[in-house]
Design goal:
With about 525 residues, the chain is an alpha/beta fold. It is about 35% helix and about 20% strand.
Length: about 525
């Protein structure tokens, strides 16, 4: 790349980026991001834990007893717009022939069964009553009336659902009101992110939606106050401009907008590691905005959150004891072996063969480094065809083996052995994570120091009709947590109920009563 112009340097300054950062990003585009090297899938008893009923009960008790002494926060990424939820509906509005065909005919012609399913079950949508008042002409068929309703859903002058933050869309229909995903997260937070009467929840949102979220909170608080006296501590943050990444044309040269300026794009959800880093809590639950349930399933969800958190506290207690022992004592051989065994068996840490070739002082430094890390307990669901990354043992460029959550795009599908390992995966990641982010002294780890910058993504996009390549930062639960100590625990499928498409709102898990 040529030297930056004064205008481009001003752009960098506005984003809080340095020249060095941008040049590093351009190098990544030119060199590409290597695929991960899968060793084997993480499976039950080989990277994924499963608890007995008694063990679950003990962990729930551990968590509930700790609530007086630990600060718990629920962290919800909620900045995404709902555009992808309505992707098939945009195609339907563009391709349907009103007054000339039926929904069945369109569905068969376009090979889109989701439209037929939505048409036949539209009364189950939480916002159906809003749509009923948007009828077509008096002589319109049921198919054409449905077409007009869908158009109204997407019309910027009417309901404009596709441009809404997903968290503020109607999700669940109650007798007296319709609840958004945002409101359901408040309810869920009351069940496990609560100390006494206080519930602490942090949402990452787009800055332009702040007032909408504040208004939604006031409305939701009225409904929740009828059932429980609780003090919500709701906070918000935005994805920082300094986490934006420069885009390039297909020749890897910086992509220029029509006015000649550089194009910067948001760095993806991996940028939120900086937002997570700002929270000063002992335990942080992470869950996506669209993964909520109706009351009939909420108890099961909360139960497994508590199990994960209880296990975190158990493991943390031992971790802190050993970390303090390393700092305070002259370790003997038995103690060193005990700590190493704990790291291997409880925290899934793997040591290189050459570890035993190091001096005693060097081995102790390795143990100290391995044990003084943030800890994440990740729920894993049996793979039954749902989308999402999966749990794998991988080997990095330095031959270190670790447990990671790996996305499909990170795997070399053209390599037969890698493809075979990938296809043997038994579980997937529902983004059900409990984080311990402090050391034994109560001091917070600097989370950005545990990111693997080599685990980002390069994707292809378009702007103004021109193709470009965009760089996404290492995902929040992928490369952004690559150097955390990681534990995977099996959780039931019932705890995972995301709304990726509007049709997902038809599922029983999103029907009240």
């Amino acid at each position: 790349m040529k030297e930056l112009t004064a205008k481009e340097l001003q752009q960098l300054s506005e984003h809080g980026l340095s020249k060095e950062q941008v040049f590093r990003q351009l190098e990544i585009f030119k060199n590409g991001i290597p695929h991960v090297q899968l060793e084997r899938p993480a499976t039950l008893l080989n990277g994924i834990l499963s608890f007995t009923v008694q063990q679950e009960k003990e962990r729930i008790e551990t968590f509930e007893k700790s609530l007086k002494n630990v600060h718990v926060t629920k962290f919800v990424p909620a900045s995404g717009a709902a555009t992808r939820m309505f992707k098939s509906l945009f195609s339907f509005v563009e391709g349907y022939k009103p007054y000339r065909e039926t929904i069945r005919e369109y569905s068969e012609r376009s090979d889109d069964v989701s439209i037929k399913e939505l048409f036949e079950n539209q009364q189950l949508l939480p916002f159906y009553e809003l749509l009923e008042g948007l009828e077509a002409e008096a002589d319109a068929s049921e198919s054409d009336a449905f077409f007009e309703r869908v158009k109204a859903m997407l019309d910027p002058e009417k309901m404009n659902f596709a441009s809404y933050p997903k968290g503020l869309l109607p999700f669940h229909k109650y007798q007296d009101h319709v609840a958004t995903a945002f409101e359901e997260h408040l309810k869920e937070g009351m069940m496990y992110a609560r100390s006494g009467d206080k519930v602490d929840i942090h949402f990452t949102i787009s800055s332009q939606h702040l007032e909408k979220f504040r208004a939604a909170f006031k409305e939701a608080e009225e409904h929740l106050a009828k059932t429980d006296k609780v003090d919500f501590d709701i906070s918000y943050s935005y994805q920082r401009p300094s986490t934006d990444t420069v885009a390039v044309a297909m020749d890897n040269e910086p992509f220029k907008n029509n006015d000649g300026s550089l194009l910067f794009r948001p760095g993806g959800h991996g940028a939120l590691i900086e937002n997570l880093d700002e929270l000063d809590s002992d335990i942080i639950f992470i869950k996506n905005i669209d993964n909520v349930v109706v009351p009939g399933l909420a108890d099961e969800v909360a139960k497994h959150k508590k199990i994960l958190a209880g296990h975190l506290l158990n493991v943390q207690e031992k971790t802190f004891e050993y970390a303090k022992l390393i700092d305070d004592s002259e370790l003997n051989g038995d103690q060193m072996q005990e700590i190493k065994t704990f790291l291997e068996e409880e925290l899934n840490v793997r040591f290189l063969d050459k570890y035993f070739g190091f001096s005693i002082a060097e081995q102790i430094e390795i143990l100290k480094d391995k044990i003084n890390r943030p800890i994440r307990i990740c729920g894993m669901v049996k793979n039954e065809g749902e989308p999402g990354g999966g749990p794998f043992w991988i080997k990095d460029q330095y031959q270190h083996i670790s447990l990671q959550i790996i996305e499909s795009a990170q795997v070399n599908k053209n390599h037969p052995e890698q493809l075979k390992i990938f296809q043997k995966s038994t579980h997937f990641n529902p983004v059900d994570i409990v984080c311990g982010v402090k050391d034994y002294k109560g001091e917070k780890f600097k989370l950005v120091n545990f990111v693997d910058p080599n685990m980002g993504f390069i994707t292809e996009k378009t702007k103004d009709g021109r193709e470009l390549k965009a760089l996404e930062l290492p995902g929040l639960w992928n490369g952004a947590m690559a150097f955390w100590n990681t534990i995977f625990v099996e959780v039931p499928l019932e705890t995972f109920n995301p709304v990726k498409t509007v049709n997902d709102l038809l599922r029983p898990s999103h029907q009240v009563g």
